[in-house]
Amino acid sequence: MAIFKYWPMYGAQIAFRNYNPIDGFTGSPWVGLKHFERFIDSYQFERLLTNTLSVNMLGLLIAFPVPIILALVINQLTSERFKKFAQTVLYAPSFISVVVVVGMIYLLFSPRSGLVNHAIQLAGGNPIFFMGEPGWFRPLFIGSDIWQNAGFSMIVYLAALTAIDPSLHEAAKVDGANKFRRTWHIDLPGILPVITILFILAIGNLFNLGFEKVYLMQTDLNLPTSEVINTYVYKTGLQNAQFSYSAAIGLFNSVLNLILLLTFNWVARKANQSSLW
Predict the structure, then answer these.
(1) What phi and psi, each to the nearest 5 degrees, are found at residue 30?
(2) pLDDT tens digits for 202-221?
(3) How far is CA 135 from CA 38, 39, 129, in A?
(4) Strand, coil or helix: what is 79?
(5) Is 177 in a helix, a strand, or coil?
(6) Which residues partner with 30 through β-bridges?
(7) What are phi and psi of 191, to 5 degrees?
(8) What is the pLDDT of residues 140-178, one digit of tens each?
(9) H-state helical runs in the chain
């Protein structure tokens, strides 16, 4: 923790300097908030913020409930053999590399040889260049993310469901409650603390979009929607050697995440829900 989390904070000072590798961290001239102002005033600021927030917000609204629903459904299965089989099928994609997943996306949605476009043509439609149209980047990113990660996230909720007292379900059965009523009034409230904690953590990463997958899915044609803060930091910092400017953008991004995390944790605590502290 000290080496990989706290010691690198020493280097964050280059966001407030005109960093020069020859002069080092302390020898480079201090410029204050110059780089932050440059980023906020740049024409890229609004587009980067919109792209990052739109993908993450849509992902949070669409993808976050999926593991919860899967866990509740799997928990109601009566056949143990089928339950184990379903769990294996659902969380197996999480072990596939991001590079392989993006390669699969390119193959499936290729305008010439892709299985999806073949199906569209058989239905009488025209092939779509999915990876080249900006409007398709978000659906492909979020959809593939759900397929890859929802099953693994489901395990956390299944573990929480095992902690619920079985006598509650037995009493509900005696009272005539069906499976839906038992799920709604027993299972869902039972895992609500876990849902709250994971939701707060997800909010705390609202401005952190997975760099690897976004960068691999980027093309020159879909940049209007696929260029996010993380990829922009990589390009300006490592490809264009604007170290101080990219460090300022990264620090700005981290501060926004911290503010969101503290705010939603405070809201959860005020609402008497589970919180991080």
Answers:
(1) -80, 130
(2) 888 777 777 889 999 998 88
(3) 29, 26, 11
(4) coil
(5) coil
(6) 17
(7) -100, 5
(8) 999 999 999 998 889 999 999 988 888 888 888 888 888
(9) 24-27, 34-41, 44-63, 65-75, 80-91, 98-108, 115-122, 137-161, 166-174, 179-182, 188-190, 192-203, 211-217, 223-226, 229-234, 243-270
